[in-house]
Amino acid sequence: MHRAFDSASYRENGRVIARCLVEALHAHGVVLKHLKVLDFACGPGRVIAELAGATASCTLHGSDIDAQAIAWASQHLSSLAPFSTNTTSAPANYPDDTFDVIYSVSLFTHLDEAAQDEWLAEMRRLLKPGGVLLATTHGRFTIDSCAPAECLHQQRDGIVYQTDRKGRFKVDGLPDFYQTTFHTMDYVRRHWGRYFAIVEHVEGGLNGHQDLVVMRRPALAGAALAD
Ligand SMILES: C[S@@+](CC[C@H](N)C(=O)[O-])C[C@H]1O[C@@H](n2cnc3c(N)ncnc32)[C@H](O)[C@@H]1O
Q1: Tens digit of pLDDT for each residue in 92-127?
Q2: Contact at 8 Å (CB) between 101 and 134?
Q3: Cβ–Cβ under 8 Å, residues 164 and 170
């Protein structure tokens, strides 16, 4: 998502992402007043830093597995949100039905299917009934970085998770549980739809790059979702 090393463009990217998230929430009638909001996989908090101004009456929280990033955010952004470290497996450190909104930018773009399922179920637990989840995927606008064999795999299964990629999306040096994933829209509808009502899937919705998926936890417990 961010491949430069200067702090100005890193922050600018955070601003753009925050704007995309706020616009998507507004488009679906979410009024950002007095809500509890979780940035799950917040890294060092660049999105929270930019969102805080637009959500002054909301309570923001951030969580990530990267203890160093969380230590930095806790030191520099503690006036905006409490930050917490989670492990690679659920549960995260919050009770059931806590949040009105959860967003996860560039997380599901890096997890395998089993980990995605685990965290989707966890986010469903953490959201209040009727709460909204925003998550991003690598879709059509990033597909040019998919090798032909990967694309075939993605078209066949709806999802491809690679641990041995090269080139622009290479993430070697990082653990096998954190690599690169591509989804089709149909996969998201069928598979993620088992956890949430898929409200909208905006191709390139994150600044013309990653897709932005807007989901809602059904208000009624046990309500049927996807086919
Ligand atoms: C590409 S970065 C995006 C960070 C942040 N969302 C942003 O846009 O600035 C992905 C983040 O996911 C975090 N991550 C990976 N697996 C995770 C997990 N199971 N739970 C929470 N965070 C995770 C990484 O530590 C990293 O900070």
Answers
A1: 999 999 999 999 999 999 999 999 999 999 999 999
A2: yes
A3: no
Domain 7-216 sits in CATH at: 3.40.50.150
Q: How far apart are CA 107 and CA 158, in angstroms?
A: 18
Q: Where are the domains of the chain?
A: 7-216
What is each CA distance from 133 to 12, 87, 171, 224, in whole angstroms?
Answer: 23, 20, 26, 17
Establish whether residue 107 lines the binding site of ligand 1, counting it when its CB lies within 6 angstroms of any ligand atom.
Answer: yes
- Tell me, in angstroms, the distance from the centre of ligand 1 to residue 93's CA: 16
End-to-end CA separation in angstroms for the chain? 32
Q: Which of 23-27, 33-37, 173-177 has the lowest mean pLDDT?
A: 173-177
CA 163 to centroid of ligand 1, rounded, Å: 17
Q: What whole-number distance in Å separates Cα of residue 11 and Cα of residue 46?
A: 6
pLDDT of residue 209: 93
| 43 close to ligand 1 (CB < 6 Angstrom) | yes
